[in-house]
Amino acid sequence: MSRSTFATAAVVDGKNIDVANLETIHLVPLAAQDPTETKKLLEAAKYPGFFYLDLQGDAPPPQVVTDIPKVYNSSKKYFGQHHDLKMKDYREDQEPGYKKSDCDETFEVMRPPQSFRSHKYVLAQ
Question: So what's the pLDDT on residue 82?
C-alpha cells in the first residue's frame, strides 16, 4: 500500500509544481465492505489524512452520488458567510469546528465512535 508523498513532478508554464500521490479509494468495493479497500481507506485516513475517492464503477450507492451537489452547496453557503458568523463555530483548544489559516478555511467535524456503529457501511478495524 503506497503512502502519499509530495514530489516536484509537474511543470506548468515553466514552473515546478509540487504534487501529491494520493491513495485512490474505490467506492464500489468499499460499499461492498471489501476488506482490502476498507484497509486502504483506514490507512489513508490515518496518514496523510486525505485521499481520492473514485465514484466510478458498477452501481455506486445512489444516495452518495445524489448527495454530492447538496454537500457542495452546503459548504459553499457556510464558507460564503461573513467571517464573524463563522467565528461562532471556532473552538480554540478543540479539533472540531471552524478553522482559518492564511490560505484556507475548514470546518472539522468529529462524530462519537458509537455513531459509526449504526451506519450502513461499518468499517471494520
Answer: 93
